[in-house]
Amino acid sequence: MVDGQYCNGPATQPSGPNRSHNFRRPSNDKHGEMSVLRWTTTSAVNADVVCLLFLHFIGPFSMESEGTTSQPLGNDAIGTLIARIDALGRDFAQRIEDRHDALRRDMKSDIDAKWTEISTFSGRLDRVEISALAVKVHCSNLPLKDSTMGNNLNATSLLDNASIKNIMSLSTDNAFRLPSPLPSWPSGGYFASGFIDLGGLHVSQISSLSKVWSAHEGGPDDLGSTFFEPTNLPNGFFMFGSYSQPNNMPLFGWTLAGKDTSGGTLKMPMDYTLVWSSQNLKIKQDSFGYIWLPIPPEVYKAIGHVVITSPQKPSLDKVRCVRDDLTDACESHDCIWGTNGLNVYSSRPRDRGMQALRVPIGAFMVQNNGAADALDCLKNVKANISAMPNFNQVQALVKAYSPLIYFYPDEEYYNSSPTSSNLPQGGSNDCDYWLDLPTNDASKSKVNKGNLLGATAYLHVKPMFGATYTDIDVWLFYPFNGPAKAKLEFMNIALGKIGEHVRDWEHITLRISNFNGELQGVYF
Asked: What is the C-alpha radius of gyration for the chain, rounded to an integer number of angstroms?
């Protein structure tokens, strides 16, 4: 379940090495620290764990009184100490919670005051924009720097649920944009040309989306979802279906449109089947919404649904079906929305390896009362990679999107380059370890600290999704990974050698659209 709503997970479990984080809130804990064990224990079991950590890493507790020598703690004394630790944690947690409640009340009051002030100035501004502005202003001036919450407080943690819904409920009305416009890429090939040839079928990625219908409850964060259709299609291109996304994030999506360049790759549907309607449902919605599935001609397939606000069937000329040799299997992915037996998911190709030819189309999949409509994605049948960037274009992409890496202020182990000075030398394979630190202490310290000034980043550029995307893997080499730490609210305890190991390769993946060169995903 998602916040008590429908969409209890994808119908097919996601697979593959990459993970997007579009659309989860990050931890406030510092680099490399564990966030499981905390002072604010609420049970004897947790208190025992905390106490055992101290006994193991600090040594036996002892108790002295005036005129006596130290004695090891007995079971009764340990129990008393555990109780005192637990009481201390409860008191500390309560004081932090009281401070947060006070900040939350103050910020809500300031937001309401800002709304009154600005709405007097202009009746056209809407509540969402004002609330978001107030949060930004106040959070940028927050005096609190609370070590129990990391280095700063998350803005939404200071607001009650009603205020959060006011801020987020219309977020799809505001499209997400990168902070700078796309640069002009070096010429050559078909990279960033606006279309890609899949083999007699040209496809274009359309991010100009027009709102069709919205529900305002259900799905992630119980904020509903919005359905769109592509607009401003290039001449001769037709839509394959509608696009949808949850309302708990700004609009950041696209869907493909296609143009038949060889004759026979696209055809109009023969009819439509009504998959679902909100007409008889008592839900928060703009109007009534209807989801239609095109019925394709023989040897053609429908690859998208059509959403409209009329009980009348859509025009047959509205979408196109695709010849089946240009399609392949896809699967449901992230939950978009769910209500009253209906679940809506995003879709993605089932085969997503570097050599895979399947192409996502930005469509959604529907599961109604347990029955799912089988939709396919597209396929690059000619394995055409002409839309991949050339060397000069890769250099321009790296210059535009290279990540800035910030190290934790107390970082001890930096990256370097894997050279002969920090790799094992000589010896033979003892079937135990291939890599290890030098035995000499001075050399060991020099190697495991890394060499940031001489460090090199290594790039692996590869096609994804039938060469409609380029993945740039940025690899960093670390000679040594330091020990883990347990975070106990206001202190960190090193866990001995737990977590230590030699030779770590870390990477960041940049996913770039070959249609226009836009950065559309980052994976860690």
From this structure: 28
